[in-house]
Amino acid sequence: MVGAGSHEFVTHSSRTEYEGAILALRVDDVEMPGGRLAKREVVEHHGAVAIVARDDDGRIAMIRQYRHPIGRRLLELPAGLLDGGPDEDPLAAAQRELAEEADLAADRWRVLVDLVVSPGFTDEALRVYLADGLQQLPPADREDEEADLVLEWVPLAEAVRHVLSGEIVNATAAAGVLAAAAADASETPLRGTDAPWRDEPTAFAARR
């Protein structure tokens, strides 16, 4: 028996139980410490990007959008899936989503924070960008839930209060807002847009 923290979790077999439009369910047989094989259900998902887009007055662009699994509208950051194939550039996807959801472009982009959503059962991960130097774009055509979304400009300090009061519950939005406030307070340099993204999901995109 090797010491704790040194076991190699080898996958002995894997099978796909379901494959849909935006996710797949995979069941792996994984070797545990001591040699026992345990089944682990893994939801494969597209990666995603989100944007903290900040104007010259320190307000951030947020959208209020209906989310069917929750059954209500949530206050969120502009965001979207990396569903353009395994070679889609995350920055290009973020620029597209900011234009499509908020009618905005930005001159300056930096990586704010990288997130794994729920690593106990899914490989879904997100990269959140900070975008400054905003420019207004012509209104985009929107469909389905996005046709109903509302753009709201929220001062960063107020957004932090919304997170702490429970008004903002979307995990990506909460993390992005708090990371932006922490970066401002600590003056920590942010990463460039070419920074490696270690946990970017690729398994589901490779199926397409």
Automatic annotation (TrEMBL):
InterPro entries: NUDIX_hydrolase-like_dom_sf (IPR015797), NUDIX_hydrolase_dom (IPR000086)
Annotated stretches, region: Disordered: 188-208
The keyword tRNA-binding is assigned to this record: no
Top EC group: hydrolase
SUPFAM superfamilies tied to this protein: Nudix (SSF55811)
Annotated Nudix hydrolase domain residues: 44-176
Any one GO molecular function term: hydrolase activity
Superkingdom of origin organism: Bacteria
Keywords: Hydrolase
Pfam families the UniProt entry points to: NUDIX (PF00293)
Cross-referenced PROSITE patterns: NUDIX
Listed EC numbers: 3.6.-.-
Protein name: NUDIX hydrolase
Organism in which the protein naturally occurs: Gordonia hydrophobica
